[in-house]
Amino acid sequence: MLLEERNARLAQLQSIITRSDVEIAEKYRRIIEAYQIEAEYGQSLEAYESDIEIAGQERTVDILRVGRVALYYLSLDREEAGIWDPDSRGWYPLPDSALDSLDFAMRVAREQAPPNLMALPVWTEGGSQ
Q: What is the mean pLDDT of residues 105-115?
């Protein structure tokens, strides 16, 4: 999840830490700032439209990111959903019973519904939800 952005932030921190012309206070400030960005990212909810590959086909879907916990897709017709499998680096289909919860979570992320408890499946080691 945002791996390129995280790697760039880490590389910038590493270059600053090794420089002797940067004051310790500035180094500390930059480290704390990076921690805050990571902490905020881990607690956020985001929904956006994207093109992804599902079963060898490129499709436009809605994506839901729940902090660093899970990444979901929901087809634009709301008939199909899946969760990202970090082990295989691919999408795992979710049962139809997850469609309504995922649709509600998408609306919450887009501020179209009031925040409320969301019952979403999560990926577990070596398998499904």
A: 93
Token code pair at residue 68: 């660093």
Pairing type for strands 70-75 and 90-93 reads: unpaired
C-beta separation of 31 from 13 below 8 A: yes
Beta pairing partners, 4:
none
Pairwise CA distance, residues 90 & 93, whole Å: 10
pLDDT level of residue 50 (50, 70, 90 thresholds): very high
103's tokens? 């649709």
> Would you call 103 exposed, middle or buried from its count of C-beta atoms within 10 A (0-12, 13-18, 19+)?
middle
Question: What Å distances lie between residue 125 and 73, 86, 88, 129, CA to CA?
Answer: 19, 9, 11, 9
- 102/82 Cα distance (integer angstroms): 10
Place of tokens 């090794």: 18
At 107 the three-state DSSP class reads helix
Task: State the alpha helices, DSSP H only, in the chain.
Answer: 3-17, 24-42, 99-109
The token pair at 74 is 């929901």
